[in-house]
Design a protein that fits this description.
Length: about 190
């Protein structure tokens, strides 16, 4: 039996779900972003207990088919941006249509209706957040970040970064460095 879980976006979320399932004595085939596949039938009482426990961690069981599909869209994008190293060989619309087995127009309209933003903006916001993370880690230069995040050039990355944050990547990095004082200055 599949359960769909809202706001599940990271490995810690998966750990919370696994822990709560274990507390209820429920086995599972897998727990991944946005869903859990339970081995046995689950009672209504267990569903209520699980939902109550998950809400304490900011997660929530879903039963509305539209909400489930929107969460699947979000999970696919989050997985693509944050947890996949490979560049997709097709454009985002084809990727989502293929992965979720729905027409992209339907997915885009549903997502906009429910989330109040477009799939493209959601995707780009996540890309920019990942770029910020990579800038803060300071392990890669901008050329390497642009390549890793599948931008055609550093200029393209910089333009998009400035459009979303109001700052250039260099200025963002500078501000991050200015916020920290050396131990001698404290």
């Amino acid at each position: 039996m599949k359960l769909y879980i809202k706001n599940m976006v990271c490995i810690r979320c998966q750990m919370v779900v696994k822990s709560e399932l274990k507390k209820l004595g429920l086995g599972y085939f897998y727990v991944k972003i946005g869903e859990a596949n339970i081995k046995e039938n689950i009672t209504q009482e267990q569903i209520q207990q699980l939902d109550k426990a998950l809400k304490k961690s900011g997660l929530e069981l879903m039963d509305n088919k539209k909400s489930v599909l929107v969460e699947k869209i979000k999970a696919a994008i989050i997985e693509l941006v944050h947890y996949t190293e490979d560049q997709i060989k097709v454009n985002l619309s084809d990727y989502l249509s293929e992965k979720l087995n729905y027409d992209y127009t339907y997915l885009a309209n549903l997502f906009s209706e429910v989330k109040g933003t477009t799939i493209e903006k959601f995707y780009l916001n996540h890309k920019i957040e990942k770029v910020k993370e990579l800038i803060i880690y300071d392990e890669l230069n901008l050329s390497e970040i642009a390549y890793k995040m599948h931008y055609s050039s550093v200029a393209h990355l910089s333009n998009q970064f400035k459009k979303f944050t109001g700052l250039t990547p260099s200025h963002f990095k500078e501000l991050r460095n200015k916020r920290r004082d050396t131990l001698e200055d404290v």
